[in-house]
Amino acid sequence: MYEHLVVFKFNSTITPVKQQEFVDRLLSLRGRIPGILELSAGINVTEESDKIQGYTLGLRVTFDNLESLRAYGPHPAHQDFVASLDGWVDDVIVADYPIKKEEHGGERPV
Fold it and tell me: What pLDDT is attached to residue 96?
């Protein structure tokens, strides 16, 4: 499995309503792009305000395999979302990494 993390820094013209529209659009991708196992998105509510650095929306997508992750970027539904960001985003941070499911039954080291 693979995890795709994205955080968005919007420009100063964005409104809370517009940010919520982007969240809703992201959430709609789950049923439209094959290979997505889990998808969550939301507005940053951290109380660690000194760590935000202007990033206000987060996205987490879990894919079943690397091929699905690679197919996500060029998928038309994803490209439509990316195009909708034009003029609203100052910066984006992306991290993709392989994940393994935690095995149950054993104690985890602290």
Answer: 97
Backbone angles phi, psi at 17, to 5 degrees: -65, -45
Query: N- to C-terminal Cα distance for the chain?
Result: 24
Could you tell me the pTM of the whole model?
A: 0.84
SS (H, E, C) the chain: CEEEEEEEEECCCCCHHHHHHHHHHHHCCCCCCCCEEEEEEEECCCCCHHHCCCEEEEEEEEECCHHHHHHHCCCHHHHHHHHHCCCCEEEEEEEEEECCCCCCCCCCCC
107 to 24, 34, 100, 103, 104: CA distances (angstroms): 38, 35, 16, 10, 8
User: What is the mean predicted confidence (pLDDT) over 19-25?
Assistant: 94
Could you report the per-residue pLDDT of 27-72, keeping only the tens digit for each?
999 989 999 999 999 998 878 888 778 888 999 999 999 999 999 9
Residue that the structure tokens 């049923």 belong to: 31
